């Protein structure tokens, strides 16, 4: 399977271990970075959309430390999941190689509360890719058959220069 991470980068930055069910771990080896707050993370390529666009699912397991005072997943945690998921999914699509790309924009709409203690998945779909930009959209979901929608999103990544 091509997970889009070049082997040297995989060994240097990410655990990228194959897990059951087609999942690949997406944990930074440097535990002092922001990502470690919402790890462990895993990514899996999903079936493409009906019109053939690639999709991937990025999963986190929310705990009490990720909750707000209402005992739901804190909105900032959900936003962090989405931002990281844009990159994890883009690697799976083969759209990003080694280099430091950035999020240009991220639009989100909260439509439900995330529940602590059950998997929180960002379903990411590639809308379009150009030489410098990757346009993505998706939903953050929970529950049987992704029945509980937490958030919808659209984002753009600017690819790193090929210097």
Structure in a nutshell:
This protein has 163 residues and is α+β, with helices and mostly antiparallel strands. Helix content is 15%, strand content 33%. The protein is globular, with a radius of gyration of 15 Å.
Written account of the structure:
GO terms for molecular function: thiolester hydrolase activity. This protein has helices at 7-13, 75-92; strands spanning 24-25, 41-46, 55-60, 102-110, 120-129, 133-142, 148-158. The protein is α+β, with helices and mostly antiparallel strands and 163 residues long. It has a single domain, classed as Thiol Ester Dehydrase, Chain A. It has a seven-stranded antiparallel sheet, with helices on one face. The longest helix has 18 residues, at 75-92. 31% of the residues are buried. Mean pLDDT is 90; it is low at 1-10.
Task: Give the topology.
Elements lengths: L6 H7 L10 E2 L15 E6 L8 E6 L14 H18 L9 E9 L9 E10 L3 E10 L5 E11 L5
Antiparallel strand pairs: 1-2, 2-3, 3-5, 4-7, 5-6, 6-7
Give the SSE order as H and E letters. HEEEHEEEE
* Rg result: 15 Å
Question: What is the arithmetic mean of pLDDT?
Answer: 90
Poorly predicted runs are 1-10
Q: Shape, please? A: globular
Mind telling me the CATH class? Answer: Alpha Beta
Q: How would you characterize the largest beta sheet?
A: 7 strands, antiparallel
Report the β-strand fraction as a percent range. 25-35%
Oligomer: single chain
Q: Give the helix tally.
A: 2
Q: From the coordinates shown, what is the CATH architecture?
A: Roll
Instruction: Write down how many β-strands occur, each being a DSSP E stretch of 2 or more residues.
Output: 7
SSE-based structural type: alpha+beta
User: How many domain units?
Assistant: 1
Order of adjacent strands in the largest pleated sheet: 1-2-3-5-6-7-4
- CATH evolutionary superfamily: Hotdog Thioesterase
């Amino acid at each position: 399977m091509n997970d889009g991470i070049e082997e040297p980068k995989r060994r240097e930055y990410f655990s990228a271990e194959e897990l059951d069910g087609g999942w690949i771990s997406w944990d930074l080896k440097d535990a002092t970075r922001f990502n470690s707050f919402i790890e462990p993370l895993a990514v899996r390529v999903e079936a493409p959309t009906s019109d053939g666009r690639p999709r991937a699912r990025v999963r986190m397991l929310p705990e009490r430390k990720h909750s707000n005072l209402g005992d739901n997943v804190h909105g900032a945690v959900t936003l962090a999941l989405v931002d990281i998921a844009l990159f994890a999914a883009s690697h799976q699509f083969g759209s990003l190689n080694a280099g430091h790309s950035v999020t240009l924009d991220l639009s989100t709409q909260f439509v439900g509360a995330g529940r602590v203690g059950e998997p929180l998945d960002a379903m990411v779909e590639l809308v379009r890719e150009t030489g410098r930009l990757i346009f993505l959209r998706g939903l953050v979901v929970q529950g049987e058959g992704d029945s509980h929608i937490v958030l919808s999103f659209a984002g753009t990544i600017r690819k790193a220069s090929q210097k």
